[in-house]
Amino acid sequence: MGNCFCKPKSKRKPKPYRMPTSTIGSPISDTHLIISDVLDYGSNDEYRFIDGRRFHNVINSKYFLPCDDDEFDRLHIKHYICKHIWQRNYSAPVKERLSSGGAHVLDVGCGPGTWLIEMANEFPKSHFTGMDITPVFPRESKPDNADFMEANILDGLPFEDNVFDYVHMRFLITSFSANDWKIAINEIVRVTKSGGIIELVEEELEPRKDGPISRLLFSALFMDLTSRNIDFTIYSHMIDLLNDIESLTDVKKEEIMASYGKWAGRIGSLLSDNTGLLFRTFKTRFLTTLGVENEVEYDKLIEAWYEELNEYKPYNVGYRFLATKK
């Protein structure tokens, strides 16, 4: 592991605040002005640097992926992979509601905001709010009906109850413990209006029917996630988790499969490349876990993994979970 050049912030856990809803535009009054007034986007203690990569510095967050330009590029590509595989940006029955106008949408863990900006452009009569634990989203180049804010869902969402018509959250399978998932989902339910829709999007990390090199590499990833107490199999019991919440009804799961690897064409190649970038991001960390002698040997292992995918022809499984608030 490389050197970390700044220590985690030792600030007291902030008390969740509640922004009042607005009757015009954003469900949070003048969010873009409020956020720019209270946040220091250039502060060095917002981040820590490991092996030349930038990571968030939020003490109570288990999210361990970088938040730098390389990671934003990976997330942008992952968005378009997901959109292509599913052939749409959402599965929730919200098109008519968003098209009619006046609907409020929340995207939790929005990252660089790719999904939210596309949705805001598609539905200009509704308002979209994106939030993430670090301010990695656009602050100026965004639609007029979109706002972004920095917040940690585990500290409580900064909204009143029953604000949003549609709440979307995805790609956080490497972020939460089992208890964190319960906290996060309960917060999402709290801020969703009666009759509002919740949509959660996740995928299995390891492709099915993969080979021994693939299983070796993913074992290193899973050991790391387990050491952080992260529940990376949430997709297997998300339905039960949602059904246990009394205020939710019409709980559903959609499932889709996609071929994985260069053998499967452009999308399969992009899927494997997306995972390959993760393996390379944590090269230093996984060297010890896997007992690989040096970086050169590790790079050879990654290349062998790509070739193995062509031999075993595995596939990836993704999920969309939907629920309606009573």
Automatic annotation (TrEMBL):
A Gene Ontology molecular function term of the record: methyltransferase activity
Q: Where is this region: Disordered?
A: 1-22
Q: Which residues form the signal peptide?
A: none
**Which top-rank group of organisms is this from?**
Eukaryota
A GO BP annotation = methylation
| Annotated keywords | Methyltransferase, Transferase
Q: Which SUPFAM superfamilies match?
A: S-adenosyl-L-methionine-dependent methyltransferases (SSF53335)
Q: Which Gene3D superfamilies does the annotation name?
A: Vaccinia Virus protein VP39 (3.40.50.150)
A Pfam family name for this chain? Methyltransf_25
Q: Is the Ribosomal protein keyword given for this protein?
A: no
Record's keyword annotation contains Lyase:
no
Which residues belong to any copy of the Methyltransferase domain?
Answer: 105-196
- Matching PANTHER family: 2-METHOXY-6-POLYPRENYL-1,4-BENZOQUINOL METHYLASE, MITOCHONDRIAL, METHYLTRANSFERASE
- Name used for this protein in its record: S-adenosyl-L-methionine-dependent methyltransferase
